[in-house]
Every structure is written in structure tokens, then in C-alpha cells.
Prior knowledge:
Chains A, B, C: Pfam families: UxaC. Chains A, B, C: Its EC number is 5.3.1.12. Chains A, B, C: InterPro entries: Metal_Hydrolase (IPR032466), Uronate_isomerase (IPR003766). Chains A, B, C: Keywords: Isomerase. Chains A, B, C: One of its GO terms (biological process) is D-glucuronate catabolic process. Three copies of one chain form a homotrimer. Chain A has 480 residues and is an alpha/beta fold. The first copy, chain A, folds into two domains: 51-152, uronate isomerase, domain 2, chain A (Orthogonal Bundle); 154-467, Alpha-Beta Barrel (TIM Barrel), CATH 3.20.20. The first copy, chain A, is built from 20 helices and eleven strands. The first copy, chain A, has helices spanning 16-29, 43-48, 55-60, 64-72, 94-103, 113-124, 136-147, 154-160, 177-185, 198-201, 208-219, 226-242, 262-273, 279-300, 316-322, 341-347, 363-373, 391-405, 423-443, 449-467, and strands at 34-36, 163-167, 170-171, 191-192, 195-196, 247-250, 303-306, 310-311, 330-331, 355-357, 379-381. The first copy, chain A, has a four-stranded parallel beta sheet with strand order 6-7-10-11, covered by helices on one side. In chain A, helix 11 packs across helix 12 (226-242). The longest helix of chain A is centred in the middle third of the chain and has 22 residues, at 279-300. Chains A and B meet through helix 4, helix 15, strand 9 and helix 18 of A and helix 16, helix 17, helix 18, helix 19 and helix 20 of B.
Amino acid sequence: MPKLSLHPDRLLPADPTTRAIARELYAEIAGLPIVSPHGHTDPEWFATDAAWTNATELLLAPDHYLFRMLYSQGIDLDALAVPRKGGVIPATDPREAWRLFAANWKLFRGTPSSMWLPHVFGEVFGIDVALDESTADFYYDTIGEALASPAFRPRALFERFNIELLATTEGAGDDLKHHKAIQASGWQGKVVTTYRPDSVIDPEHDSFARDIVRFADLSGENVESWTGYLAAHRKRRADFRAMGATATDHGFVTARTANLSTVECEALFAKVMGGKAGADEAELFRAQMLTEMARMSVEDGMTMQIHPGSTRNHNARLFASHGRDKGADIPRATEYVEALRPMLDLFGNEPDLKVILFTLDETTYARELAPLAGHYPCLKLGPAWWFHDSPEGMRRFREMTTETAGFYNTVGFNDDTRAFLSIPARHDVARRIDCGFLARLVAEHRMEDWEAAELAHELTVGLVRKAYGLEAPAREVEPA
Amino acid sequence: MPKLSLHPDRLLPADPTTRAIARELYAEIAGLPIVSPHGHTDPEWFATDAAWTNATELLLAPDHYLFRMLYSQGIDLDALAVPRKGGVIPATDPREAWRLFAANWKLFRGTPSSMWLPHVFGEVFGIDVALDESTADFYYDTIGEALASPAFRPRALFERFNIELLATTEGAGDDLKHHKAIQASGWQGKVVTTYRPDSVIDPEHDSFARDIVRFADLSGENVESWTGYLAAHRKRRADFRAMGATATDHGFVTARTANLSTVECEALFAKVMGGKAGADEAELFRAQMLTEMARMSVEDGMTMQIHPGSTRNHNARLFASHGRDKGADIPRATEYVEALRPMLDLFGNEPDLKVILFTLDETTYARELAPLAGHYPCLKLGPAWWFHDSPEGMRRFREMTTETAGFYNTVGFNDDTRAFLSIPARHDVARRIDCGFLARLVAEHRMEDWEAAELAHELTVGLVRKAYGLEAPAREVEPA
Amino acid sequence: MPKLSLHPDRLLPADPTTRAIARELYAEIAGLPIVSPHGHTDPEWFATDAAWTNATELLLAPDHYLFRMLYSQGIDLDALAVPRKGGVIPATDPREAWRLFAANWKLFRGTPSSMWLPHVFGEVFGIDVALDESTADFYYDTIGEALASPAFRPRALFERFNIELLATTEGAGDDLKHHKAIQASGWQGKVVTTYRPDSVIDPEHDSFARDIVRFADLSGENVESWTGYLAAHRKRRADFRAMGATATDHGFVTARTANLSTVECEALFAKVMGGKAGADEAELFRAQMLTEMARMSVEDGMTMQIHPGSTRNHNARLFASHGRDKGADIPRATEYVEALRPMLDLFGNEPDLKVILFTLDETTYARELAPLAGHYPCLKLGPAWWFHDSPEGMRRFREMTTETAGFYNTVGFNDDTRAFLSIPARHDVARRIDCGFLARLVAEHRMEDWEAAELAHELTVGLVRKAYGLEAPAREVEPA
């Protein structure tokens, strides 16, 4: 039976000189706590601390990296126990789904899943044989037994993972009850929320009508007027801050911003609420609202994250049967220089505003994003995102942004995941790749070793705390 | 006299650890047969098995990689014996043309021609001195003498090259007589055709009017009606399949597809045939026909290849004097996500349809193509194409597609060439680059050595056979 | 106190085999003279040979690479002594500005400034301790004392730097008095000008109205008529050639060219001069004028440089307070294939015309620029520019252009700088990166060592002299 391999030097550059430097850098930061300021885990896990059930439900069915690849090779989502639209779980034996996945594990060779999952299997569950058809049942049973034990409850794993902070993401129509329950429980784990108001801003969002009602209820504002609608956002931002939020997040298809007069805003808003906004007006409203969100961030200090460029639900048939987030979101070319100009004209020079830009279009790294972040005080670069959250993708991010934006206009790593068990694996990949990149700079005598060590620490914990307004825990002493 | 160098480790990574792994991988697959499912060799060569004449006519005058570079440095195409419009051969002494090429051989340093041609010179002709002014005549004579001998006839070289299958490309107005002659000859070499109907689909193609007539004649259908026109395609696809074709190929300037109603199709088709289609309507017709071709592929099982993004005949003066394919085709930015949507809405989830996407716009690798192929069952990624069919280009292809699409959504290598003698060289370059890429993954502990070995075999023969619906020859045993 | 590090192997690849090859290549060309055919130093320096004052005024306040990064981290430009609009110098103690820079020097880790400045500090000023807060005063004093000495006057440094030729850039409304003074002085240093008529071509340029008047005065032509306007350009081009110019330079936001009839040109010109040209007409006029400039280059032999793609003065507030060139120019996506077509239709096949293309959009390297330059006789590729004039940027340039355009369609290095003291540092970085790239090709057996040595020489001095029509100095013997 082939062994599960988690080589201590994995992901470090092959050249022996560079690898030795990288290994030293990595040794210094491998044990630092995990700061996870952007992700999609379910706060209910930490509120109830209930046990997860089995490998399929926890690791396979919710992981779009896994089921999209399997689907691309002709494997039916039902056979993988992926929920259908409305959360309906297909009547698939989860063990059979796991076997199917195991039998096709080779499809993931060369993908980041082939780094993340063995880390979960080996480090979290202590498995030491490789996954394949012959070991599928052993995996399924081992994982299932572990999950039934107290040590594998969400809070226990949170502590074992040495997580300093974990941010979840909730919509503007969320009552934050799970976060309230976490706070009320007295548990010390720091789980905070993030304000993601897409579904009450984007008139084309499929939950817009429903979520606007909840938004009104929860804020107590009259969201029928432009002033009341803005006031509702301010209220809810405060609600979210009370649950630890230090950031907002915005994921529209473009990065467009606008700077309309109040009269224009009122007219546009009336159209939107009257259901009469066409595609151009919907886009203009989203653009104006990005500017409004920046204005509120200037007021309340929340860090603003912009995640544009995803063509959501590209596969119409799959969207009809299975709904959102089923691996059918496809990136598109994204423009930032003109798109952000209206917002930057107003707030670009604000020294205390923090706007973190993400992209799915790597061509903008060196051409647009690094030049923008290397100039405007308010702009910072988010890490390589989604399809690019991978060894090669992270390497390209550093190679294409550092020379113009430097390291200090970046914000550390985001795991951006709902796969809680893979969080240590994902942070570990990022740490290894960053150390490898820094090691190359040292090996090429472009940087001193002590500078690289300082930067490794910054990229792991320092910059993320600063960018998201997080305090360093008292117990940790920053290097001099 | 400088020696011709064909170092056994050429193109393998310099790092000793990685090179050693790459060398082992390469050793295992270097001797595998050549499967060439997409190219532009002349079937007449294999039908008549006539001898080629000289180095200039065979290796220089038809090779646009060579004469475009020489032209860019101010060398006249006439002096290189490149045919003028209508195939008129200039009255240039072919030996003089060869000398001119030899004297300028240094221009190709760092280009893929500097890998391909020495392989041809050394491995095919047994030459062991480097090409330059002083050896030009020796080359010309050696090659000329060889070509006159039976061992250098097309069929003999085909066998010597260990070619398992070679696909040529013919238009919809081609009578396939050479392929018929090959079949009738009893020769065992497997030379098949490919259905490329561009000139009867694109109203802006310079041969459209002429080829539509041939298309009608050969199909026996009334191509004046939309129904008859589609029936003619079905007939001709069957004709091509009878000559071994398993694939179609489509090379329009964009990847746009459409999904019009039958009534709309009929109206548009009438305009096209009446010569009244403007540029937008011509584009819409090509778009609709890509969808029709996909529909027919669902019916008849032929693999569909899409090669968009070339701005053909950019140099107006050269097009007037020398016609098509004279090195003046320039890539352009190409969009896939919206362009392919109408076709994917209809057939994207068909498990048995195979649509292979190519690009000249590398920015789409990670942003559009890998995400599309990593989701839709029908989509596969063609190899790095044309300007990117080169060591760095192939490396970028793997680095930018693998993490999202994996290896198994790719289809092996295409040589895409009419330079028959360079086919082994081109496949060899691809094998070396793939082994180098795999070796890096192994050296960085991102993959096991046995996995890399399996993949090297897949990338060389396994995936191409699968993608193009080719059977593995009985004699070869796939590794367990 | 940490030492200033200028490792002899800096920027060479880490792999020992490759580094050894790179080191040998570099040793052969490190001492070659500097040919600087494109830059922005002030000719007054060489005309008057006056001493510079202090580190802040010379090295910090004019360097947009430095102050843009500091600004992006919230540091006020006033505190850095950066001049305000109209050249007003803020009342900042230059020593305090220098201390602020020194205290933030870590921000430049990983940027090209971290390679250039230590070279200036170490090689030009002989400083051997690293820059930080504790050494800021030592730096400031050491540099100030040196600058007061004769050995650090502009002409003395020019000679010490072994500069064979230095081109400055002047507008069409410049009287070239400094160049005349240099010529009249009898000093042997070769400082030439470059014709940059942007401000009399671009109706949207903020100096258009003013500069057109000077242009008329200096040319003595009636620039109110289209014919007179063109004649004025011809006159001024001749004036510039008399001051050594061999090149023109054009920096509009797009690369668009046009080919209007004379009647159309006259009508468009009348609108432009009447202040009635809208944005589209201004763009069309710039496009037509690029074609006119190419036409004049065919006539007078001047090399034409095209630098498109910069969104100038993106930060409106900063432009209002500080004016142009304050680090707020942001690249944008740039298209060349259709943009250049009208000009190429006319002059693309001219064997003696030289048009050098630059880009801020790296996606065009492999997709558009290398295919264009690898075909059209008139086109050459300028080196990696501005944000991409950096180790990684230069590496990407070679990796993405060489396979299609070769080395011989490139033109050597441009330092493009007004930071005179950094010129040796910048050329040194380019030489090291080129040698590293060539060394990799040798190490991978893609090129012979003697070929790489020949190319290293070409990339350093040969190609630049040829592209800009410069004669090699008699004393230098080219390698056989």
C-alpha cells in the first residue's frame, strides 16, 4: 500500500541553496498562530460544537474544488452526494460517494487539493497510507470514528489548529444568532463575522427581494428611502462590529465604482426598489454602493474587501438543478484603473481607509493592481484568490506584484474556505510558498537573510493583523 | 567547424536533482510511438510516396517560422524561394536561398526552430556539424542526396519515425482523393483526415464562393437551403470519417457561438448565401455554425477542435503579393467565457461530447480556459499552440492550466505542422518539457515519482488517444 | 551596523551550474561602455556642470519610484521635500526628509530600488554600511560632502560611468539651449537630444496651447495650416538632429494610428487648432500624427519610439496639488494589432524604417508584440519599461518575447531615467538579468556558450547602436 507522503520540504524550491534558506525561514514561522480574516466556515459549528458526521459530508460534498473536477470528467454530482438546489441531499450512500472520489483521486494530481487533502488526512486524522480505491473504506471508517470523538469537535479542532482569529462571512439579512451564541457561551475562541451586503445591494441577486425585507426588519430602518437604506447599512455594520467584524466584503462582477449626486442616487434607488432597474442601472447602483461602502469605512474604520471578476453560475442547467456555488463560476477579464477612479477621487488619499483588492484576472497584478496599490494610500493587495490560491498562483502573485507594490502593501494570506479542516493545510501552503519566494531573493542576493526572516513573519501574521485592524495577542512578542 | 549539438539532456531543467528525475521520466517515454492527431502535412506525399527534391523546397520555403523571422530582418521572401500568390515559385536558385538562410541562422537563437531543426539535421540526416555560412553547401548537398534515396521517401520516414497515427486537415470542398489513394494502396501507415469546413462556413473567407460550389457537388445536397446546407455537412463529415477522420477543426477569429431559432437561422443563412451578410452577420453565422458543429459532434462522435484568435493576413501588401500563410498572422486577445456560453448551454453537460479549446492568448489559460475545462464535461484543453508551441510556451501552459484543470482535462501534444521531417523533433521537445515540469513537481514533493511516470505516459500517448477517439494499437501494453 | 551588501553574484540564478555560466558571460560584458539612447536626465547638468546639492534633492525628491511607495504607505510628499505644482519646493529640511526615507527603507525590499540605490551608495559614493534610521545622517553627510567635490560634478561622473552616449528627451517647444551649450563647450561627452512632440500633437495635453506657440516661433512655420504644421515638425526634427538626435519618442495613451486623406487631415487639424476637437477627434489626431511621424522617419531616418499605455495623473487631488509625474500614472490594457495596422499598411515593409514598440501591458509580449516584431521589418521591441524595468520584469520580457521575436528584433536596454547617478546601476541590473537568462538557455542545452557570449555583447551594446543608428566608437573592437 503506498504511503501517504507529507515531505517536510514539500513546496520548497528544488535548488539546494535556495531550499536550505527556505527551510530556515519556514522553521521560524511554521508554528505561528493562524490568523484567518476572510473565510466561509459556518458559525453554527462553533456555536453548537456538534460533531460532524462522516468524510463525505464534511470533506467531499461541500468542496467545490473536488466536485467540479470530478464533474468535469463526467461524474454525476448525485453520485458524490452533493446537495441539490434548496439543500436536498441525494439518496446516495455517503460511503459509495467516498469510494467514487477515492477511485478518481488521481485526477487531482498537480492541483492544490493534492496538497491540502493529504495534509488533512495525515496531520488531522493521522492516516499514513495514500488514498486510492483500496484504502477508501479505511479512510471512511477512520475519519468517521475520529469525527465521533470529542477531540474532533469544532471547538477542539479550532484550539488544536492554533487559530488566533477566524472570520466568517454573513449577509446583511443575517441575524448573527450563531455569533451571539458563541459570545454568550463563554468559549474563548475568537470567531468574528464579516459584513457582506451583496444580496441587498445587487438588484440582480436571486435573493435580493427576500433579503431586503430581512434587512429592513433587522435594521429597523425604512429602507424604501435612499437615506433610510443607507442608515440601515450603518446600523447593520454596527451590529456586525458588535460581533467582532472589522471588515466588509463585496463581490460584484466588476470593480466599477461611481460618484453620483444625491439627487441621482435617489432616482436610481427608486428605480431599483421599484424593480425597474435594467442591467445598466443595476450595474450603476452596485458601483455607487461600493463608493458608499468606502464612505462608511472612512467613518467606522471597517476594512473594505473587493472581490470582483467572477461570472457566477455559468452552467445554466446545473444552476437550475443544483443552485449556486457548484463549481460553475468562471473568472473573466477585470478592469480596475477606470473602474475604481470615482471612488479613489473621493477617498483614495484617506490615510486611515483600507481597501483590499482581489482579482481572478492575473493580468492585472503587474499592470493595474500593483501600480494602484503602490501609489494610493488606501489600497492594499489581497492574496492570490480562489483559482489562484495554489502554489503556482501564489508564486505568480509575488513575482508580479512585489516589484511595484512591495511586500508592505499586501495583507498576508486568506484561506477563503468553508473547509474548516483544511485551514491549517492552506496556511501551510502559503507559508511554504512565501518562504520559497523570499529564499530565492536571498539566494540571488537581492535581500539579506534577516530581511527575509522579518518579512516571513510579516507575511504570516504582521500584515494581516494590520490590514484587518486586529490586535496582536498579548502573549506573542514581535521580533525586534 | 563547430559541432552540431544535440545534448541528451537538452531542455531538461538545470537543477541536478530535478534533471535526474526528468531524465528518468523521459527515458521511459522517449521511445513511445508518435500520435499526431492534428497537423497540416500533405496527404499527397503518402499517396504517391514521391521523393522530395532539396533542402530549400522541403525545409525552408514552406516553414513560416523560418521565413517570417528572416523577413522581419529585412530579407526578401523571393530570395528565400518562398512561393508567391497562386503558388508561383520565384526564379531563385534554391541553393542560394539555402545559403542565405544558413548565413542568418543566428537569428533563430532562443526560438523553437533552434531546437527543431538541429534535431532534423542530426537525427534524420545524420549531419554532425553546425549550420552556418561555411557549411551551407555541405548541408544542401547532404540533404539533397539523402532525399533522393529510398530511405527518405515519405512512407519510409513515416515508419522510421514510429508514427502510430498522422492526421492531415482537409477542407469541406476536398475530394479526399489522396486519402483514398492511401487506403487503396494497401500501405499500413495510418494517415487520416480532419474535417475543416472554415471556407464553407465563413462568408468572409476568400474561397467561400468557390468552395461552396465544390461542397454542393461533393455532398450532392442542395446547399441553397439551410436544411440542405446542414445535410451537406453531415454527408461530408461521414465522407471524412470514412477516410479515418475522428475530429473536426474550426479556426475563426473569435470563439463566439450562438443559439438561434430555426427561423432565425434560415433568415441569416439566406443573407449569407445571397452575399448580403455584413460583418456582424458573418460573425453571427460563424457563431451559429460552431454550435451546429457541436450538435453534429454529439450525433456522430467526432471530436471538435476550436482554434480561434488569429488575425489572418495582417500585412496587406504581403497578402497581395504572396497570399495566405506567409507569417503575417498575428494573435489577438480572445474571450471564451461569454463566447462559448450559447453552445455550452446546449451541450456543455454532454458526457460524450469532446470539444478541445486552443488559444493564442495565454492570459486565458488560468483565467478562462482552465476554469471552463475544469468544470464542463465536454471541454478539454488543447496543448500550447503555434507561437506558444515552444519550450517556454509549453512550460507556461502547464504552470497556468494544471492547478485548475489538472492533467486529465488536457489532450497531449499536437505538432500542428506541415514540416513532416520535424514531427519527431516537435514531439520530442514536448516530451522533454512535460518531463521537466513533472520532475519539478516531484522534486518539490508535490507528486510521487510513480505518479509522474504514469502522467508522462498519459501526456505522451494516453490522453491523446482518448481525446481523439483513437484506439491504442494492440501491440502496446498500457502500464498497470 | 549592518554592512551594505553588493554581492558580486547578485541577480544571477541560484543554481550553481547556471550561475557559473552567467558569471562568465557577465564578466565579459560588465565593463562595456554604457549606451543610453532613451532617458530623462536634465541637459542643463552637462551644460553648466554645476554641483548637485544634497542627497534629498538629488536622489529622493525627484525619484518617483521612491516617493510613490512612501506615499502609498501614508507618508506626505511635503515631508519628503517633493516639489509641489509649478516646482514650488516645500519648506522641509532636506535632512529630515532623508531621515524619513531612511527610516522607511524596508518598504523597498523586493523592489528594483533595493538593487539600484545600494549600487549608487556603494559604487558611486563608496559607502559600506546599510541604510537605516541609525545611518541616515552619515549617508546624508557623506553624500553631501562628495557632491561638493569636483569628482562628483555631472561631467566627471559621466566620464567615470564610461557612458558612450546619453540621450535626453526634449519637447517640440524646447529651444535646445543646453544641448547647444554642451556642443559649444568643447566637452567630449556625447549627450544628445530626442524629439518628443507629444505636447504639440495631443490636443488634450495641458501644455498644448502654450507649446504650439513656441513650436511656431522656433520653427518659423505657419502652424495654423496642416501643411505648415507638418513643415514645422520637419524643421524641428532637423533642429534636433543637429543636436545629435537620432530618435523621436511618442507617449500617447493608446498605440492607435490612422491613415486619413489629406482633406480629412485638414478638416481634423482645423478642429484641433480651433479647440473644437472632442475626445474622439483628439484621439484620431494623435493616431494620424503617429503615422505622419512614421512617414517623416522614412524620410529622415530617425528611429521612432512608441510608449503607449499609461493613464497619466490618475490621482486627481494629487495632480491638483503636485502636478504631473508624481507617481500617479497607472498602466492600462493596450492593444497593438489593430491600432498599428493603418501605419503598418503604409510603412510596415520599409526596410530602413525603425519603429520601437514599448508596453506597460505584459500580456501583449507573447500575444501581439513578439508576433508583430517577428514579422514586420520596421518593428523592433523596446526593453521592459517603467514598472517592468526590474529583475522579474526583464526576465518575463525575455521569456515571453524571445521564442517568437528572437533576440535580434530587440534593441538592448533603456534606462529611461532622470536619476543620473543610478544609470550604471540600472544597466548593471539589465546586464545581469540578460546573462542569467542566456545562462539558463546554455545550461538547458538550448544554446552554445559561444552563442550566448555573442548575444550578451549584442544585448549590451550591439543592438542598441544598430537600433538607434549610433556608430560604435573607433576604439572598441567587436568580437570576431
